[in-house]
Amino acid sequence: MPLDAVLPAFSIALVGYLAGKRLNLDKGTISRMCLYILTPALTFNSLSTSTVDLSAAWRLSLIALLLPLLLTPLFSAIFRLMKLDGATSRALLLPTIFSNAGNYGLPICLFAFGQEGMDLATVFFVMQGVVIATYGVYVAASSRMDSKAALRLVLKMPTVYAAAAGLSVKFFGIPVPQVIMRPITLLANGAIGVFLFLLGLQLVGTASSASVWKPVSLTVVLRLLAAPVAAGAVGKVIGLSGMPWKILVLQAAMPPPVNATILAQEFDAKPGLVSNATLVGTLASLITLTFWVTALNGL
To answer: Residue 58 has what pLDDT?
Structure first.
């Protein structure tokens, strides 16, 4: 059941929110720790230790890499039709073109489709992580700077190099000394909890208004309903079917990722608006994910 995966995540985010209310915690420091330390550790650990046969799921991998690029012009056009300004439109791409394929997607795919679903979901999660570390950084940075400066920042992101290193270790069988791998694994194991804690912390002090709820509502509809429909259509065009296609749709139906708030905070891409969209999308996903799991199980 989706609630079995979602409610524990809510409880960690709630702890972060309450801690932010009671304690004088620095959001920026924790956000940078996630972006520059925990995310690279999680990426390297996932890629270097995964038992998934990527060659058997190459279409799923390809779609996970291309989907954000395909959704960008579609959703940008919708934002323009809704008369949102450029900075707001670019910031809202973060919670609409990317999904929470990790700390929500992996357990829900496991509960819905068993170990096979979990293995395929890991492929999507890892590949989307690479896109977030590159294209996601570009989208966030471009809200405040020109394209050339944003591209230079992409090359400074450690997750890009962590992904390259993890893939090299996996495919070439390069042994990693335990003295290096153990601390990386420990950091990776703690990443999800810290991400959720930060999500709650990010929500402290965010102001809601009528002007916020219009773009937030639009973001939630695009993320939870339009994105999985688009992903399913792309999957069929590329020839995906069966369990890989179901996992593609379900992973694309996840709410906005915590990384969206991390990137928005780091590059000042309207972090309050993105945090609101992430919160509302996560709450609404209790209903929408129940629908998607039921529908996909019936196919």
So the answer is: 83
Burial class of residue 106, CB neighbours in 10 A (0-12, 13-18, 19+)? buried
Task: Return left, alpha or beta for 62; rule: phi > 0 is left, psi -120 to 50 is alpha, else beta.
Answer: alpha
Number of residues assigned to the chain: 299
Instruction: Decide: residue 23, CB within 10 A, 0-12 exposed, 13-18 middle, 19+ buried.
Output: exposed
How far apart CA 155 and CA 143 sit, in angstroms, is 17
Ranges under pLDDT 70 in the chain: 1-6, 53-56, 143-151, 153-154, 206-211
Task: Write b or e for each residue in 70-101: b if 16 or more Cβ atoms lie within 10 A of its Cβ, otherwise e.
Answer: ebbeebbebbeeeebeeebbbbbbbbbbbbbb
Please give the CATH architecture assigned to the domain spanning 2-297. Up-down Bundle (1.20)
| Domain definitions of the chain by residue range | 2-297
